[in-house]
Amino acid sequence: MGKSLSRTLTGVIVFAYGLFTIALYALSAISKGTYFKRPTEKEKLELQLARDRLWNLSKDYEGLSHHLLTLQSGFKFHFLSNDTPNTAQTIASDKPLVIFIHGFPDSWAIWRHIIKNPALQQAVSIVAIDMPGYGGTDSLEKYTATNVLEKLTELIVTLRTQYGVDTDAESNKKKTVIVAHDWGCVLSMRLAAEAPSLAHRFILSNGPSVKLVESNVRRILFSSKKMLSNAWRNPLQARVPLTQAVRTISPLFRQIFLSGYIFAMQLPIPLVHHFLTAGNLSLLRSIHIRSRGKAEHNAHDISECMASSMGPSVAEAKTKTASGDSYPITLQDERAFAHIIHMANYYRHRASTSPWNKSAQTVASLHSITPGAGRASSGAGLFNEGPPGALKASTTVFWGQNDLALDRRICLDGMSDFLVQGSQIVLLPRTGHWTPVETESRAALLKAVEWTVQGEKGDIGDALQTSYPGVQVTFSK
Ligand SMILES: *[C@@H]1O[C@H](CO)[C@@H](O)[C@H](O)[C@H]1NC(C)=O
Ligand SMILES: *[C@@H]1O[C@H](CO)[C@@H](O)[C@H](O)[C@H]1NC(C)=O
Ligand SMILES: *[C@@H]1O[C@H](CO)[C@@H](O)[C@H](O)[C@H]1NC(C)=O
Description:
Blueprint: H1 2-32, H2 41-55, E1 65-70, E2 76-81, H3 88-92, E3 97-101, H4 112-115, H5 118-123, E4 125-129, H6 145-162, E5 176-181, H7 183-194, E6 201-205, H8 210-233, H9 239-258, H10 260-264, H11 269-291, H12 299-310, H13 314-317, H14 329-333, H15 339-348, H16 360-368, E7 395-400, H17 408-411, E8 424-428, H18 439-453, H19 460-465, E9 472-476
Parallel strand pairs: 3-4, 3-5, 5-6, 6-7, 7-8
Antiparallel strand pairs: 1-2, 2-4, 8-9
Helix pairs in contact: 1-11, 2-12, 8-9, 11-12
The structure holds 2-acetamido-2-deoxy-beta-D-glucopyranose (NAG) (3 copies).
Residues 52, 56, 58-59, 315-316, 319 line the site of one 2-acetamido-2-deoxy-beta-D-glucopyranose.
Keywords: Membrane, Transmembrane, Transmembrane helix
InterPro entries: AB_hydrolase_1 (IPR000073), AB_hydrolase_fold (IPR029058), AB_hydrolase_sf (IPR050266)
Protein name: AB hydrolase-1 domain-containing protein
């Protein structure tokens, strides 16, 4: 009885706060004039050209070409790469494999500034993927953790074979690195915790470990409750504990305020669709304009960002790669902007928090790529497990300190307890949420990849200083 009442109450609060957020957003867009703004002919043309550049399968993008990979289940992933997967040459090469995973509301193209770098293309095999439901990749019915993480894991295991990391004779012949941002980061934190053998290093930026957030929220609620009860017991001297309680709980309120859009994503589908597309996608456009940081943005840039979010149009959906591959059928059928709901469904179906029920196939393939798995290793990992959700692979956490969506005290405090040997936390003082696009932070991310693939020699902070003066390594072990 009490439980169902509190569930109803929570539902009502989430609904009300979601509606409030939409109303607030609509008012702000109307007052700024972006809500009713019609695109000019020039803007329409720019967008069309950008979509052709990013999504026409028959075109290379700055040294990278399009590839479609079909998993055993028939699920198709789209990605860009500088090397052709599954060829004798790629498999024999000793270039490390670096996989880039984007977040909301983006695609492979959020990495375009980093992966077009010629020196990087020389040194590593780049794979920049579209997540399920995004860009040119197939959609899922439900975006539960199990569905999403199973697909990502099967993809990464297959890529490792097709790029020569694992062969029948030997596994881990060369290094695999996963670089991820936002939702890609949230899910990769789970991969590093629950499937750490997938990569030798994770480089993860501006997305929380949900288990860490939960633990920080519990800690904050516990101590502020204690302070409140002190105040209650001794009302004459209540000022100090009350002030303390307010100070303790304020990061939580700030985070809830910043997370209004997550509540809006829980509303009925038509409202969510309206929220994400109204005013001709004015929400996405304003996100992208803000993502440019203080740097000048121009029409060319913004249309490329919009094309990254929107994916292939009906025209590009019909194109083919040089080897005759095409986009998934689902994508050709439900184009336009139907896929915005797929993006929202990561929030709606609890992809970050629901349990990952690994299939027998996944358990077996993860086992086969675990270094030293052949030896008696049943005891490995039983001790030194760390808190629930702790990451078990070497990880470099990159954090743009001016992130408007994520409060550091909720999302980063205590992170060091979640990291193993060979991990670091790197703070970027002049950067916001969009580390792959902001000029200084994308240089720092590129540098971190180089540092990793060149054998992790010397201190990562020293290596990063030249591309991002003032960068702070707050934790390293
Ligand atoms: C929205 O933008 C697209 C592309 O810029 C344009 O083709 C379309 O006409 C616009 N729709 C409205 C309602 O303004
Ligand atoms: C894709 O690119 C090819 C080669 O540049 C071009 O011939 C074709 O018209 C483009 N297709 C679409 C749909 O834009
Ligand atoms: C987990 O997955 C297996 C098959 O992959 C299924 O038989 C089992 O019922 C699932 N368990 C849960 C709790 O979903």
